[in-house]
Specification:
This protein is mostly helical. Helix content is 48%, strand content 5%. A hairpin with a 5-residue loop joins strand 4 and strand 5 (329-330).
Length: 495
């Protein structure tokens, strides 16, 4: 039995060596222009803007839209982002998107060059909006737009005539997950602007603290308070405890206040031990990685951060994700690229935290030792797959490469622009454009779609929204990823 176990260990080591060699060969042979991809990934957010567009707007086929948002509740909720290919402003995923954009700038902003300004602008478009959404103490606006009316129509955002209903969480109808995620977004963003606009940074941090206290004091899920307005669209399936801890972690990072650290350590055991979960609805792995930096040699967060790595690495004996034949990471549910980008972001961040710490930088998956550089390699395999290193030879980022999705599930992209068709296109008239066999007339540059299926097959179809719809929360983590690989482009050794 001992001999068999030793042989298995030797085989695993040989497999890793072989994979590392093959990956270095592939990286050299199929390198990408990560700087170009970074620029385009940020352009996508301009295409998702709601409200009155600025003179600097670069996606020019988009125009002003939703200029009366909030009017039904006598509030100003003009601005923010549409989450995907629809025209609803769902604040829960919008806030997560903002947090991830901010985290990307904090970790990798030094590598962004001229795109750093555009990244700040993308963040501020959201934070200006969230300041409006949290302007009344005891109230957090959680969504704008009736999702049923919106999803039953195929209209440009500039033409919307579906109900722009405003939904709020309050002391009597709490929504701790959406409120806490907004607090996290404001806290993370406050650090982005600290050395650039100190007054704005302080405003964001004060608001983050107030919204966090509201989320924590009046606990409850917005699933119950808002019901069918948010479910089945962006239901909170993991509860709100992870968002409360996530927000406290960001507030600790921004303020260094003992109160927030104590809050995290006091409540962390109330969060389920799931290690490969991270996204707009689950912050578990993100909490472990974010806080591991402060206590890298401690048993407080490091074990869960390591378990995250072991749950994701392809060769790990304890992995809980699957991989397509072409190498794309897969988890259950739609819009799979959100997992590939978010988990890859965490791998890179954790690798950088671990790098240079000697023996404690090694991750152990059972008896299997993993160097920090391996985390980078796995993440690079994912981003390269997205950009075209896959069995179909297709870039899943619109406008990058010669072959990319042309029929994305996106209203504004698929309908003629105001410049080309200034007349109003109503709900029913838009259906003919949805059913058209012609490619989308407007390129939503930088948009990353939901991606191929588990067999690496992609059906370029508007109707197949699970695979062809782009979202802000797919793109948000990739901004930081691309900035990092832009900085190491052309180097064989990565770490």
């Amino acid at each position: 039995m001992i001999m068999v176990m030793r042989m298995r260990k030797v085989v695993r080591i040989l497999l890793v060596v072989l994979m590392n060699v093959m990956m270095m060969v592939v990286n050299v042979a199929n390198s990408h222009d990560y700087g170009e991809a970074l620029t385009k990934s940020l352009l996508f957010f301009e295409g998702q803007r709601s409200g009155r567009l600025p003179p600097s707007q670069r996606i020019t086929w988009r125009k002003d839209s939703a200029l009366l948002d909030g009017y039904d509740l006598h509030a100003d909720l003009v601005g923010g982002y549409y989450d995907a290919g629809d025209n609803v402003k769902f604040h829960f995923p919008m806030a997560y998107t903002t947090t991830m954009l901010a985290w990307g700038v904090l970790e990798f902003g030094e590598f962004m060059g001229s795109d750093l300004q555009h990244a700040r602008e993308a963040i501020r478009w959201a934070t200006d909006y969230f300041l409006k959404a949290t302007s009344i103490p005891g109230v957090v606006y959680a969504q704008v737009g009736d999702p049923y009316g919106d999803h039953n129509c195929w209209e440009r955002p500039e033409d919307m005539d579906t109900p722009r209903t405003t939904y709020a969480v309050t002391e009597n109808k709490p929504g701790s997950e959406v409120s806490a995620e907004i607090a996290a977004a404001l806290a993370a963003s406050s650090m982005v602007f600290y050395g650039f606009d100190r007054r704005y940074s302080q405003l964001l941090l004060r608001r983050a603290s107030r919204v966090f206290l509201f989320a924590d004091k009046f606990r409850g899920s917005y699933n119950d308070g808002l019901g069918p307005a948010v479910c089945p669209f962006y239901c909170s399936g993991n509860g709100y405890q992870d968002e409360l801890i996530w927000a406290a972690a960001w507030l600790h990072k921004a303020t260094k206040a003992t109160y927030y650290w104590n809050y995290v350590t006091r409540n962390i055991h109330s969060v389920d031990s799931v290690f490969a979960e991270f996204g707009w609805d689950a912050k578990h792995a993100g909490i472990s990685i974010l806080l591991s930096k402060f206590v890298l040699d401690s048993s407080l967060f490091r074990p869960n951060a390591d378990k995250f790595v072991c749950s994701v690495l392809p060769e790990s004996p304890t992995k809980s994700v699957t991989y397509s034949p072409g190498g794309l990471l897969f988890k259950q549910g739609g819009s799979n690229m959100q997992h590939a980008t978010a988990l890859s972001f965490l791998l890179i961040v954790y690798s950088r935290y671990l790098h240079g710490h000697g023996n404690i930088s090694i991750v152990h998956c059972d008896n299997f030792a993993v160097e920090p550089s391996r985390l980078i390699q796995v993440a690079k395999g994912q981003v390269d797959y997205i950009l075209g290193n896959n069995p179909s030879g297709m870039s899943y980022m619109v406008g990058y490469g010669n072959k990319f999705p042309r029929y994305i599930h996106h209203r504004g992209s698929s309908l003629p622009s105001i410049d080309q068709h200034p007349e109003h296109i109503n709900c029913d008239e838009g259906r003919s454009y949805f059913a058209s066999n012609q490619p989308n007339p407007n390129l939503l540059i930088g948009a990353i779609v939901g991606g191929p299926d588990i067999n690496d097959s992609y059906n370029d179809s508007r109707a197949d929204f699970t695979h062809s719809e782009p979202t802000t929360y797919i793109n948000a983590p990739v901004v930081g990823i691309l900035a990092y690989f832009k900085s190491v482009m052309g180097k064989v050794e990565i770490g």
